[in-house]
Design brief:
CATH superfamily of the largest domain: Histidine kinase-like ATPase, C-terminal domain
Keywords: Phosphoprotein
InterPro entries: Bact_response_regulator, CheY-like_superfamily, HATPase_C_sf, His_kinase_dom, Sig_transdc_resp-reg_receiver
Number of helices: 11
Protein name: Response regulator receiver domain-containing protein
Helix content: 40-55%
CATH architecture of the largest domain: 2-Layer Sandwich
Length: about 425
């Protein structure tokens, strides 16, 4: 047997006739990588195992168990780009026409199969699948480029705002702080002159004003962290379990004071991570501050981390933070990364914290997604490619929807009508 070399993708043929499978393999194994199955259930298991490596499914209609059309329906949901060809007897003509018209089949063929016609259909179908995959890749790349550009614009806008706030607010704060620092001395002068009617007013006012000044300065610092648009250099090696334990130690008293449980579940297989250590530590500090701020006594935080490979085989660290805190009825998880959204509605809750986390992951070549849990709670999924030169390939929902294969099927059918 010669080694298959012409087609980069595989062919799966499903038929309950063993002779048909045998002859099919003999005819095409020199041109394609061939998989065969004698029922729909086994065929679907092969599709699940090989995924997008299989570009073309050829299936008989009448088989014990699931029919060919039923198999194609399931295959379409599993892998929309898969080219699906239905093999029918003449008595199944209406079934075949319906399958094609509804977009479940790319073509249909009559038994007995003509070898030359079958070879032509397989080559055309494989070429079509290759084109779809190339287009999918280009759309994904463009979507990622647009997402990156939009994010860079957003970060740059945050930078402009941060610079303006720093310039105007810090100057004003300097004057306010000077007044507050002088207030105790002026109070003592007043006490020496005559007993003041309400000395506590001076003390309490000073404390409140100082607290607000510190809050504004903290906000400005966090905003500055969220406004760096330049991609970070990932030259520092950190061990995630050690880093998390270290940062937790800093805030342990706050968690204990609110009786919030914090648990770590870090896979031993997770290697050391190459990061920008200062910003990566700040990311986790902000996440812990976020949890302390909005969780209630008795709530729980769990941080899990493991290794994964994406669809392209790229290795990445997947870090998942979950809690069981409450949400407002009208709030969406996507709001979490809005710089002015606060989940807890508390005065010390800075919406820009999560925006800073979003930017930090983005500038590491990673991504962060938020998801509401039922009946309540939050799940944050952070993905970080192990290779510092790579980026994750997640794109915004808009661009993902734009690349859905079913829309292309519908458009193709409209043009053919």
């Amino acid at each position: 047997m010669n080694s298959p070399a012409l087609a980069p993708y595989h062919v799966l043929y499903v038929d309950d006739e063993e002779k048909a499978l045998h002859y099919f393999r003999q005819m095409f194994e020199d041109e394609f990588v061939i998989h065969t199955a004698n029922n729909a259930a086994e065929g679907f298991r092969i599709l699940e195992s090989y995924g997008t490596q299989i570009g073309l499914l050829l299936t008989d209609q009448r088989m014990p168990g699931e029919s060919g059309v039923e198999l194609m329906d399931r295959a379409r949901r599993l892998h929309p780009n898969l080219v699906r060809i239905l093999v029918t007897a003449f008595t199944d003509y209406q079934t075949a026409v319906k399958a094609v018209n509804e977009g479940r089949a790319y073509r249909y063929l009559h038994k007995p199969l003509d070898p030359e016609q079958l070879a032509t259909v397989l080559r055309q179908g494989m070429e079509y699948y290759h084109t779809l995959q190339e287009r999918e890749g280009l759309l994904t790349q463009n979507a990622e480029h647009i997402r990156t550009t939009l994010m860079a614009d957003r970060v740059a806008g945050m930078g402009i705002m941060a610079e303006g706030l720093n310039h105007h607010l810090r100057n004003a704060l300097t004057v306010v702080r000077a007044f507050i620092d002088l207030a105790p001395m002026k109070l003592m002068e007043e006490i020496d002159a005559r007993p003041p009617r309400d000395p506590n007013f001076w003390v309490e006012t000073q404390h409140q004003a100082q607290a607000q000044i510190e809050r504004i300065q903290t906000l400005l610092n966090h905003l500055a962290h969220a406004s760096h648009a330049r991609k970070l250099s990932r030259n520092d090696t950190v061990h995630l379990p050690m880093l998390l334990e270290n940062i937790l130690g800093t805030y342990l008293g706050h968690f204990q004071e609110k009786n919030i449980r914090v648990e770590f579940d870090i896979s031993p297989a997770l290697p050391p991570l190459l990061v920008h250590e200062e910003r990566f530590r700040q990311l986790w500090r902000l996440l812990f501050i976020e949890e302390i701020t909005h969780l209630h006594p008795g709530d729980r935080v769990v941080v899990r981390a493991r290794m994964e490979k994406d669809a392209t085989g790229q290795e990445q660290a997947v870090m998942i933070l979950t809690d069981n805190g409450g949400w407002g009825a009208q709030d969406r998880a996507a709001n979490l990364f809005d710089p002015f959204f606060t989940r807890s509605r508390k005065p010390d809750d800075f919406g820009v914290n999560m925006m800073a986390c979003y930017v930090t992951l983005h500038l590491h070549g990673g991504s962060i997604e938020a998801k509401r849990l039922e009946p309540q709670g939050l799940e944050l999924t952070m993905r970080l490619p192990l290779d510092p030169t790579q980026s994750t390939q997640e794109a915004d929902d808009f661009f993902l929807r734009a690349t859905q294969h079913e829309q292309r099927w519908q458009k193709r059918e409209e043009l053919a009508a």
